[in-house]
Structures are given as C-alpha cells and as structure tokens.
Amino acid sequence: MKRLLLAILPAVAVLLGVFVGSYPTNPLHLDDLARAVIWEIRLPRTLMGVSAGMALSLGGMTLQAVFRNPLVDTYILGVASGVAFGAALAVAFLPFIGLAPLALLFGLLAVFLAYYLARVNGRVSTVSLILGGIIVTALFSALLSLLELLLPSESLSGLVVWLMGSLASSTWKTVVYSLPGVVLIAVLLYLLRWNLNAMSLGDEAELLGLNVSFWRGIFVFLSAILTALVISFTGIIGWVGLIVPHTARMLVGPEHSKLIPATISIGITVMVLADVIVRLLPGDIPVGIITTLVGVPFFAYLLRKTGGGWS
User: Which one of 84, 148, 245, 255 is at 20 to 30 Å from 67 when CA atoms are compared?
Assistant: First the structure.
C-alpha cells in the first residue's frame, strides 16, 4: 500500500501542477490558449518543481546520513549564503554574466571553502565540517549585507523577493539546465546506496573497509551540487531538505534502497503541491514562504521527539 501511494502521489501532484491555476483548463477540452498556458508556463514550472523537490530532498537525505542527524540539510554548509551573495553580486555589478551562473558559482565555492576549512591533517570530521559551514555562512552573509547597502531600492526589493524562493520565473531553459543534472545525481546516489548505508554507521563504517573521509567529501559535494542546481534558478527554498527525508525515513525505514525512491516521491509531491497552493492564493507569494510555514512546526516536532540526535 505504501509503495502504491508513493508511486501515485507525485503523478497526481504533477497533473494538478499542469492543470490547476488562475486560468481554468479542462483536460478533456483544451483550446489554443489553454495549450499555450500549459506548454509555456505550467509545464516548465511544474518540472522545475519536480527538479527542486528531488534535489532539495535528496540533498538533505544524504547529509542526514553522513552526519547521522535528522536535523540537518544542505544549507548548513553555507550553500544558501553563497548563492545569495552570488545573486546580489550579479544584480549589483555583473548583470551581463547573469544571476543564475554567479549564484551557482558562489554556492559551490561556499561548500568548497567550508570543506577546505574543515580538513585538518587530511581528515574531515563531522563537527569540523559543520563549524566550517558556520564560518562560511557568516562570511557570505556579511558580504551580502554589504552589497545590499550599495544596491538601489528597486534592485534591492527584486533581490529580496528572489531570495524568498519561487518557481514563477521557471522556463524551459531553467528546466534543461537543472533537471538532467538532478536526475543524474539521483541515479548516482542510488548506485552508491550501500556506501550511504555504511556512512549511517558513523566512523564505525571504517570497520567495513570504507574510507570515511573520502566518501564524506563525495556525498557532501553531491549534496551541494544538487542544491545549487536548483536554488541558483529559484532562490532559497527552505525546509524541504529537512522535513521530506525524515518523513520518508518514518515511512520506509533507514535502508537507502527504499529511502531514496521514497524521498524522491515525497519531495516531488510536497514541492509541486506547495506551488499549486501558491497559484491559488491571492498575490504573488513566493513558494519558499509556504514551505517555511509548513517546515517550522515540523522541525519543532522533530526537535522535541528526537532531541536533535539520530534515531
């Protein structure tokens, strides 16, 4: 029954994403305008939601296995602050390069920097990696604040809205740049599921012959690339990488051959349905606000239940 639901739910969400919106569309009788709305607006927006749901959820799931903690996601490594600074830099001084390329570049640079700071005597511990992420986050947050002081009010308001996270500006171009890479890394993570299972054991994984520091680095960078491939186009969409993997783990358990498909299924469902809700609400509300409003009480529930540890 669980497998059937996990197969059906994302398909239903995608259908709702294609046919629900401010312009009414009947799947059985589509006029020319309805076809244009679906092809030019709703389908790329829904596919970008699929990409975001997969990427953010798998990124969080991977780091939760690596850190053995259900209360972490990819933003803890400074990806979000790096992306935000890159976007602000593009808006302020380098508009000819484009917002997305610079956001992607600085998102990945933030993770490389955090990993470099955490590497001591050739080893990277969990604690040092988290501390490295905190340092990088503080650095790029300060630089972002400095740029915000230099921006004119019109550009600053646009940047602030973009940073809240939205799928409204999705196009076929952003889908082509994001979705194939996300699918490729998802397949790679599934092929490496045994390593993820071993990493869930912590440093005891070395007893199984696994080079923990090497694989920790591999999985951290795969998570960072997943996140950067999405939020460099959509802005910062929070909490999906936190709540989805834990929900999937409660449904199918910690074994990654089951956990990865479940995480993908729930991630797509949550992200696309959140965007459908946004379309039905008055005003142009960023989808990041909806995911945050749902994620905050769920995070409080997790904290109270687990005490912040791995279970």
Answer: 84
Residues 6+ apart with CB under 8 A from 204: none
At 82, give phi and psi (nearest 5°). Answer: -65, -45
In the beta sheet, which residues pair with residue 175?
Answer: none
> CA torsion, points 177, 183, 185, 190, in degrees to nearest 10?
180
Asked if 45 and 167 count as a contact pair (C-beta separation under 8 A), the reply is yes
Enter the pTM of the model: 0.88
The predicted-structure confidence for 135-187, as pLDDT tens digits, reads as follows 999 999 899 888 888 887 777 877 787 788 889 889 999 999 999 999 999 99
Amino acid at 297: P
Q: For 170, how many CA atoms within 13 A lie in the half-sphere containing its CB?
A: 30
39, amino acid identity:
W
User: Dihedral of the CA atoms 275, 47, 101, 148 (nearest 10)?
Assistant: 0
**How many C-beta neighbours within 10 Å does residue 31 have?**
10
Q: Roughly what angle, to the nearest 10 degrees, separates helices 79-92 and 99-118?
A: 140
Bridge partners, 255 (sequence order): none
For residue 135, give the amino acid letter.
I
Q: Which two tokens stand for residue 162?
A: 């973009």
Collapsed DSSP state (helix, strand, coil) of residue 144: helix
Strands (E), the chain: 119-120, 123-124
Give CA separation, 281 vs 45, 274, 286, in Å. Answer: 16, 11, 11
